[in-house]
Structure formats: C-alpha cells, structure tokens
C-alpha cells in the first residue's frame, strides 16, 4: 500500500430548489408531525446550559448510531433517570447548538431508554457498540423514520427541566441497511439494456431528489420506496450517451443540503478523466475483439499451485524500445517485444499467472497523454547518488502518467491512461486484448483490486460514493469521521450495499473481461463474509451461461490485522488466521522477513536474515548483535522458513532448531503463530512484492559491501527459491529474476518511470544507481544509500542478470513438473515433507535441508561449500535434478551426493535439488 494524500477539496455544486417529483412528494407525506421550532420560545428544549458545562455539544460530529429502525445506540453524557432523549430531524438542515440550546427548525422522534442496553443479537452484529446505551424509537413515530433519514439528524439529551446536556449527529448505516437492503441488494444498478430501451439505476435512499443529465437534457428519476433505488428508463438512443446524476442530499461533511453532480458508482465506461459516465453495454459485440467469444485459456491449475508474477502495466513496457505501445494495455499484444518474450519464457518455466497492479479507473493520473507532465531535466546526466533525479521526478509526480493505482475512483471501468484513447470504450476493447494476449502466451490474468478505500470522500472533487449516500459507503469512527487506517478514506464492506458493490464489480470483471483471479488489497479490512460472498458469486459463473468457469478463478489477498477493525473489533475479518480453510490465500510475511532479515520498517536497513548473510557473512551493522545472538536468530529464522516451505501449515509437526517437537502454530512470529494455514493454498509465499524495497535493493542494504555482483545474484536466487519451492501458491515481483532495482526506493508508488520502469535488456542495467530515491519516503536512509549507489560491488551486468533469471527459471521448471510440490492436503505434506537435520547437532546455520517425496532440496545460503549428511538417504541413489544438471548454472552442477554416507555436498550460495533414482 502506498502512503495516502489528503483528498483535494472540490467545488460544491448547489442550485435552486427544483420541481418536486412524485417520489419527493411521497417522502414529504411521511413527515406527519408538525415542525418543532427550536428557538428561545420553544420550551422545554430551549433552556440554556448550566455554567458547569465545560463544552458545548457538537452536532457536527456523529457519536450516535441508528442501527435499525427501532434502535439508536449512543453513550450520552449527563446523568439522571428522568432525562429526556429525542431524535431531531431537519429536512433542510440548520440545526446547531447555540447558547446552550439546539437552534433551528426540526421535527422530533421520541426515544425511550432500553433497560439492559443493546440485545445480544445487536451486540453480536455491532461488537464495537457493546458498551453503548440503547434507545427505542417510539412506535408512534415509526412512520417518520424514512423521511427523517433524508435530512439532518441530531440526538439530544435534556434534563427534566429542559437543560441540554448532550447532543450529537447520528450515523445511519445500520438503519439504512435494515430498511432498504433486503430489496436493494437484489436490484440491478448502473446501466442496463433491453430491446428498445436503456435503464439507469442508482441507490440513493437518503436523497431528497435525483435527476439524470443525459443527451443534453435533465430527466427526473423515480424512487422505489422499498429499495431506495432511483431509476430512469429511456429510449435505445441513450446507449452510448454521456450521463451523470444530480443528487440533492444532506451532506454531514459540510452540514448542509447540497446538490451533487456525480458519476455512476456502477459505471461501465467513462469519458476521459472520469468526467462523465457512459451508458455502455459491455455485452455489445462491437466491444469484443476478434476471437473474444471463443477465447481459450491456459489450463487452470488449483490455486495452491499458482506461480505468480506481479506486474505494473506501465512498468512493463514504458522503457521497452521493442514495444510499439509503451505504457499501454496493447503492449501485451506486441508479441515480439522483449517484455513479452520474457513473459513467455517464464510461462514455459512454470509461471502460471500475471498479477496486474490496479487497472481500474484511478484517481491520480491524468488520462490524456498530452496532459501528463514529464521530468524537466536530463535524468541520465546526474551522478548515481545524486539528489537531483528524485527532486526532478518529484516536481512532476502529481501530474505525470505514473502511479501504482491504489486510489480507486470507479471500480468497474479500466483505467484510461493505459488506453490508446481514454475517451470512450477503447479502454474496454484494449483491456480485453491484453487479457487475450496474456492467455495466448500461456498466462492467466489476476487483477489487483482495492475495495477497502476510495481516493476521496465527503464533498471532495473525486468523491463518488459519499456524494450519493453520504456517510454510508465509508467506514466511520465513533465520532462520525471517516476512518483512514488504509492510507485513504476507508470503505465499509460490512454495510450491505458496499458489500454488494464489491461482489457485483468482481463478477463484472470476471464475466465481461474474463479475468482469472483477484488479489485483494488490505483484505483484512473486509469482513470474511464479504470475501466468501465473492467466492460464492464467482463459483456460480459457468461456461455455458457466462462464458467463464468461475470455480477456476483464484482469490488471494493481504490478510493484515490493523486499524479500527483489528482483532475482529467490528466483524470477523478476512485476516490470515480467519481465512484458513477457505481456499482463499493470504500473503505470509513470516518466511519473507526471515529470508530478508528484520522487518520492512527497521531504522537500520542492515538487519540481516537467512538470504542476506546473517551470522554466515555478517555486515558491519551493530543492529545484528553479537555473533552468538546472530546464530540464535538465524536458527529461529530457519524455523520460520521451514514452516513457510510447508505452506505455513498450523498443524505441521517437526523439530525446531532447539530440538523441541512443535507444530507450525507453535513457532513464534512476533507474538503470533508462524503457521496459520489449514491446507496448502491458504498462505501465499513471497520474498518481495511492489511494497517496500525490491529484493535486490533489500540485499544491497544487507549484504556486506564486499559481496561481489555474482554472489549478490546467487543470494537473490536463494531468496526467491524459498517461495518458489514451497507448498502452496507463490508470488514474485516482475523483474526480481532479473535483479530488478528501484535505486533503493522503499515506496515507489509515485516515483515515476525513472525509478520504476522494468529493463528487459540486460544492457540497460537493472535500475540500480538511478539516483537517491525520493526524499518523502527514503531520506532517513540516504546515509546508508549513498555509498551503495556509488559502490562498484552493487553494480551487476548481463552475466549476473541473465544468470539469475535462468537459474530461477530452472527452479520453476522443477517446481511445476514435480508432483512433490503439488501436495493437496496437510496430511500429505506431513507424510511427504521433512527437515531431517532440524533440531539436531547436524543442523547448520545458514543451511536448510528438506526432503519431500523423491526429492532432497538443500538451500545453502552460506558462502562456503556445505556437506549435509541425511541418514535416511544412506544407501539410496540420488542425482542432481536433470533440469539443473542440464541448466545454465555451472556452479550448481558441482553439487554431488555420496550414497555410502548419505551426504549431499552443495556449493556456497546455491539451491540444489536432488532426485532419487
């Protein structure tokens, strides 16, 4: 995840009152109570606060929560059994606290305290509200509820003599779900098409009026009272037209009724820079590339066997001189480009998926190429450790064509900046051609999806969801402010209609774009139930009905546990341990940290690990501790890697480095269980991804300065091998096999092409030494970076780059062809896989020996040749695996086996695979 930016403040669109539609008249009829004017003469609600009050209540915050049509949850201040509690609503807003009283014109709903507070069922649904008091809506006022929700709401508490003791705004997510979700979740939203007519539908239950701007005219939408969905049906000529909604609604973020002109959250197409939605039918044959309907995909494999390359669309080709479409979807159709040749090489070696970083409509990139800024300097002319490159790149970053894309604007439209023309449906056609080309190259396609936050909220210019149903789609904190723990404005998939949007959007990508898998950004911020609902919806897609087999679509995501929802505070999260047994994988950070050393946020980046020389090739960093401390930590790291090699199985039993017999769940990882998976496929292994430094850059910080380029390349392969040869799925960042560097940038989400572009031609280098990385996220590490960027030992050439890639591909070939790496159950892993030297006097720090079926795999991360005597192998014939024996790595070919003693001899910094027989 990138760091977030404060959302830009947009222009507030307001207007004079319009003619009321039948729907707004119907809403008005619900307001059967006479207005309650809260002025100095409207006793008893106008008494001044006592002098003892320290602070006036703040009705701009929303500390009360209306959780269903009958119940308000609140923790009001003040005491007294005879207090009066009231829910005030003002269709036009204007309620304020003035001189110790609530001022403004309002109606009221009577509230009664509930003895015992919330019910058990309510506490189970809203665990974060378990300490709140409960207030029941008076049955006499229930007919006012729907209308009340269209205006400002204030919960108030007065003493018997009328003194105001507390007042606050009100959150309404729960009551909106209670009233509307049963019908609304079944509605077809966005554009839909039937012979001779086009229909546009939007869910806006709190809106006072919704109009549609289309084809140069304004059309009033009709409101369905049961679902809260507003709909307009027009002629077939609406198809392809630009449109947007005009929504009149109370907006708590600005404390007034506003009229927002806003695009469709269910857009299927957009004009350039997302200014207008387009009423486009994705089933229109005109949008299907030749051969789309008969597209044949590479054979699907179980998710536990997936080997994934994580790839950014622009990075892939923007500096590839052999590509005819640099930076575009169509670059994947350039079959003879260096990039596509390399992807085909990886596919032949066993890579099964290309994981595309976000490719939906982004909020931070100008989509027209002629409006994208470029660095205004000669970047190549500066020294490798200069501050000039990052300064120049940074000056253009806000308006250039680059961003990772974790800033969703419209969830179900391809990003326009990757299209040859962002205006219209070209992006749809070209995205489909990209999928075709990848499938034709033997690779299935995964999309990185980001439903956990939006690029903006409230009345900001790039806010969409929150302008239509304010305060619903975003997750709110206790005071009603939007949670931002994800870096940006969090969404709330626990709310029915946000959960529906997630499911509907993913089904559209699977069905209309034939995407083969989805990676969920910050999946732990989703309810587990939401992710399982996605799985169920995808499983229902069939070739006969939908043109895709949904059961073959893979799902995985970041199961991190943090923020306002941590530890299941609001719902059962889709976190690592909670997702075990679902077949939906979560990234495992356990082995990653052990392989690299330390953690991603260490103050000193020199903290070493298994593949970076801890104890066996120590650097000068004092953070590593004494030699004895390093040895002890290295052996603990080896336990974490062993658990990772099993697929992070919680129940796998083995001897740890201390000689104890333990389960994977009993190996400690920073206070959490290292093993959490129920079966291979629950945990995804990786050594690097787009977040944090690339693997090469991490090793540059950690390996001793004197490490040669050749040895750096070999350590890179060892690190990659710990994921590639594990049970379960594994991922690597594109270019890691080519020693890819981002010049030590730990967060390159907005660092431009200069630091991010992939270099497929080894003569262009690997990206190292392109200047000091951007100051915003890296300046505190510049003192470590400067000597590395100018040091000769960290420079690699074609020999190292190509050697690392071919050695890695050899390991992928072994992995993809050997049944030993395709074990389906925890029982099979327990029976077939072992670490025979673990926890014995023969265990060597820096070496892991694994037996699995007919294979013996030795990871030797030490600089020296190592002998590993495996007594169970004694008297059995083993030889170096044929792929390595005939491969390009001459060093591994010197690995040997002595049958009389059962001894495997492995060169330094080498992974060797032996096969029985």
TrEMBL record:
Domain of life: Bacteria
Alphabetical GO biological process terms: carbohydrate metabolic process
Keyword annotations of the record: Signal
Segment forming the signal sequence: 1-42
Any Pfam family matching the protein: Pullulanase_N2
UniProt KW Signal keyword: yes
Keyword Signal: yes
Ranges for domain Glycoside hydrolase family 13 N-terminal: 189-267
Annotated ranges, domain Alpha-1,6-glucosidases pullulanase-type C-terminal: 764-914
SUPFAM superfamilies: (Trans)glycosidases, E set domains, Glycosyl hydrolase domain
Entry GO MF terms: pullulanase activity
Location of the Pullulanase N2 domain: 61-178
InterPro entries: GH (IPR017853), Glyco_hydro_13_N (IPR004193), Glyco_hydro_b (IPR013780), Ig-like_fold (IPR013783), Ig_E-set (IPR014756), Pullul_strch (IPR011839), Pullul_strch_C (IPR024561), Pullulanase_N2 (IPR040671)
Matches recorded under PANTHER family: GLYCOGEN DEBRANCHING ENZYME
Family: Belongs to the glycosyl hydrolase 13 family.
Protein name in UniProt: Pullulanase-type alpha-1,6-glucosidase
């Amino acid at each position: 995840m990138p760091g977030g930016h404060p959302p830009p403040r947009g222009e507030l669109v307001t207007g004079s009152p319009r003619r009321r539609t039948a729907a707004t008249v119907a809403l008005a009829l619900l307001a059967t109570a006479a207005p309650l004017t809260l002025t100095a003469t409207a006793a008893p609600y106008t008494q001044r606060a006592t002098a003892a009050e320290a602070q006036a209540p703040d009705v701009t915050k929303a500390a009360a929560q209306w959780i269903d049509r009958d119940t308000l949850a609140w923790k009001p201040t003040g005491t007294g059994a005879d207090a009066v509690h009231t829910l005030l609503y003002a269709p036009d807003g204007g309620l304020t606290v003035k001189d110790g009283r609530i001022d403004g014109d309002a109606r009221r709903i009577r509230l009664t305290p509930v003895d015992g507070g919330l019910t058990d069922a309510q506490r189970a649904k809203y665990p974060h509200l378990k300490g709140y008091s409960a207030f029941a809506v008076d049955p006499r006022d229930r007919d006012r509820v729907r209308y009340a929700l269209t205006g400002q709401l204030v919960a108030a508490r007065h003493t018997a003599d009328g003194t105001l003791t507390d007042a606050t705004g009100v959150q309404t997510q729960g009551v909106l779900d209670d009233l509307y979700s049963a019908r609304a979740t079944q509605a077809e939203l966005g554009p839909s098409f039937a012979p001779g007519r086009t229909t546009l539908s939007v869910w806006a239950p709190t809106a006072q009026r919704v109009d549609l701007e289309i084809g140069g005219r304004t059309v009033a939408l009709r409101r369905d009272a049961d679902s809260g969905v507003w709909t307009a049906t027009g002629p077939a000529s609406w198809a392809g037209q630009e449109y947007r909604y005009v929504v009149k609604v109370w907006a708590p973020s600005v404390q007034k009724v506003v009229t927002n002109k806003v695009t469709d959250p269910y857009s299927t197409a957009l004009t350039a820079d997302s200014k207008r939605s387009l009423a486009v039918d994705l089933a229109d044959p005109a949008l299907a590339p030749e051969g789309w309907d008969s597209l044949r995909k590479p054979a699907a494999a179980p998710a536990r066997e997936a080997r994934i390359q994580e790839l950014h669309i622009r990075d892939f080709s923007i500096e590839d001189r052999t590509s005819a479409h640099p930076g575009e979807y169509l670059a994947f159709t350039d079959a003879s480009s260096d990039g596509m040749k390399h992807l085909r090489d990886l596919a032949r070696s066993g890579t099964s998926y290309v994981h595309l970083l976000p490719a939906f409509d982004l909020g931070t990139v100008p989509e027209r190429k002629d409006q994208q800024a470029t660095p205004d300097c000669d970047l190549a002319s500066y020294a490798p450790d200069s501050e000039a490159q990052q300064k120049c790149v940074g000056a253009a970053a806000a308006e250039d064509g680059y961003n990772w894309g974790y800033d969703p604007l419209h969830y179900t439209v391809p990003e326009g900046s990757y299209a040859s023309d962002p205006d219209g449906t070209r992006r749809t056609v070209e995205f489909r051609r990209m999928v075709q080309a990848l499938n034709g190259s033997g690779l299935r396609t995964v999309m990185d999806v980001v439903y956990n936050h939006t690029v903006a909220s409230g009345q900001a210019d790039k806010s969409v969801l929150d302008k239509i149903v304010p305060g619903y789609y975003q997750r709110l904190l206790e005071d009603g402010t939007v949670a931002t723990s994800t870096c940006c404005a969090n969404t709330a998939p626990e709310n029915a209609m946000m959960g529906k949007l997630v499911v509907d959007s993913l089904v559209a990508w699977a069905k209309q774009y034939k995407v083969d898998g989805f990676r969920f950004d910050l999946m732990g911020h989703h309810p587990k139930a939401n992710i399982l609902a996605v799985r169920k919806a995808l499983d229902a897609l069939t070739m006969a009905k939908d043109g895709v087999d949904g059961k073959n679509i893979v799902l995985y995501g970041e199961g991190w546990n943090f923020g306002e929802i941590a530890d299941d505070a609001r719902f059962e999260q889709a976190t690592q341990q909670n997702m075990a047994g679902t077949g939906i994988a979560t990234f495992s950070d356990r082995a990653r940290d052990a392989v690299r050393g330390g953690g991603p946020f260490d103050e000193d980046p020199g903290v070493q690990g298994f593949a970076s020389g801890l104890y066996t090739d120590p650097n000068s960093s004092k953070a590593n501790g004494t030699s004895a401390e390093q040895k002890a930590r290295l052996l603990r790291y080896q336990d974490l890697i062993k658990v990772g090699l099993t697929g992070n199985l919680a129940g796998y039993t083995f001897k740890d480095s201390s000689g104890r017999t333990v389960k994977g769940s009993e190996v400690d990882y920073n206070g959490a269980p290292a093993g959490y998976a129920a079966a291979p496929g629950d945990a995804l292994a990786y050594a690097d991804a787009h977040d944090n430094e690339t693997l090469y850059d991490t090793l540059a910080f950690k390996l001793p300065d004197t490490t040669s380029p050749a040895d750096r390349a070999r350590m890179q392969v060892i690190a990659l091998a710990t994921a590639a040869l594990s049970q379960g799925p594994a991922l690597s960042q594109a270019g890691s096999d080519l020693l890819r560097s981002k010049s030590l940038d730990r967060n390159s989400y907005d660092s431009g092409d200069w630091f991010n572009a992939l270099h497929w031609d080894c003569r262009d280098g690997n990206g190292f030494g392109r200047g000091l990385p951007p100051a915003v996220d890296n300046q505190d590490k510049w003192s470590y970076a400067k000597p590395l960027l100018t040091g000769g030992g960290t420079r690699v050439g074609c020999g190292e780059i190509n050697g690392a890639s071919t050695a890695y591909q050899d390991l992928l070939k072994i992995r993809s062809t050997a049944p030993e790496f395709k074990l389906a159950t925890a029982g099979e892993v327990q029976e077939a896989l072992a670490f025979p030297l673990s926890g014995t006097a023969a265990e060597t720090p820096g070496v892991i020996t694994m037996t699995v079926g007919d294979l013996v795999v030795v990871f030797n991360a030490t600089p020296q040749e190592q002998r590993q005597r495996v007594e169970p192998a004694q008297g059995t014939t083993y030889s170096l695996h044929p792929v390595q024996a005939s491969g390009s790595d001459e060093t591994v070919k010197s690995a040997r086996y002595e049958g009389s003693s059962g001894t495997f001899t492995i060169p330094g910094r080498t992974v060797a695979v032996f096969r029985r027989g």
